[in-house]
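Hi all, posting the design record for the shared folder.

TITLE: backbone redesign
STEP: 1 of 1
STRUCTURE INPUT:
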């Protein structure tokens, strides 16, 4: 099932599997019956968009290897308005930066798992969400997380 939040970042569709959010899709259309979980996810996305929410509190179950799960956890720990580099996450996990970047690019729940808060050592880096780097910039500006963009 997919429920949609209409935000300044686009139509963000949250998808659940049972009692967990498993994906976020850009330009989504609602699919299936709603649920209390999807209603809550949409409400939190709308509150984030309105500047009233700085940390999501949803049961997440992103698909991916144990390594990807460790990167997803590291990204989820980055506070609103803060950023880390791929290298900083890699150092904390004891691995090279390139696999961290690949795991960020494979994040199935962007925005909620804030891969937009992960930067390259020399700039923005990439973004796997719809709109690429432009969406990443919009999210960072919204959070005040990359001062020279403001």
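Okay, here is what came back for every position:
SEQUENCE:
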């Amino acid at each position: 099932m997919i429920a949609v939040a209409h935000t300044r970042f686009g139509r963000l569709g949250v998808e659940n599997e049972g009692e967990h959010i498993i994906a976020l899709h850009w330009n989504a259309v609602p699919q299936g019956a709603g649920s209390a979980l999807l209603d809550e996810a949409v409400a939190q996305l709308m509150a984030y968009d309105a500047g009233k929410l700085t940390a999501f509190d949803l049961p997440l179950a992103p698909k991916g290897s144990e390594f990807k799960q460790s990167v997803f956890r590291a990204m989820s720990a980055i506070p609103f308005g803060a950023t880390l580099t791929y290298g900083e996450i890699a150092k904390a996990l004891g691995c090279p930066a390139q696999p961290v970047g690949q795991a960020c690019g494979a994040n199935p729940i962007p925005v909620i798992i804030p891969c937009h808060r992960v930067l390259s050592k020399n700039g923005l880096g990439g973004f796997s969400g719809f709109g690429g780097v432009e969406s990443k910039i919009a999210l960072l500006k919204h959070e005040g997380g990359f001062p020279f963009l403001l």
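COMMENT: The first strand starts at residue 2 and ends at 7.
Let me know if anyone wants the other runs.
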